[in-house]
Design a protein that fits this description.
CATH topology: 434 Repressor (Amino-terminal Domain)
Structural class: mainly alpha
CATH superfamily: lambda repressor-like DNA-binding domains
CATH class: Mainly Alpha
Number of domains: 1
Distance between the termini: 54 Å
Helix content: 55-70%
Largest sheet: none
CATH architecture: Orthogonal Bundle
Shape: globular
Number of helices: 6
Amino acid sequence: MSGHQETREVILPINTHSIDIIIGNQIRKRRKACGMTQTQLAEPLEAKYQQIQKLESAANRVSAAQLFILAMVLNVPLYYFFEPFLKEKIKLDHYGFASEAINLCLDFIENHQKSLDDLRQTLLRT
């Protein structure tokens, strides 16, 4: 097909719960690497440790605001939570618009990471 666009290759889980599980696993992995308890991680979210348990086990979904705060507290870029999607590669051409949306989001995160890092540092200083 002429005019074929090259797409970014990422894993696209079968359902949204799979995404929640992967993000929860990333939260748990980073929290433990930082030597933090669930209670300590819950404090900046103004939550209880049970909420962190639910996020890590994918019993509850992580909101965008929570993910942003978690990235700042755990000192990781936002895309850290989505890195497992980039580990194994599959073509997303047959997903149509979904692949374009994913590419747009990934490009935005890559292009604005320095601004997000600067904002994180500013917020952590206050």
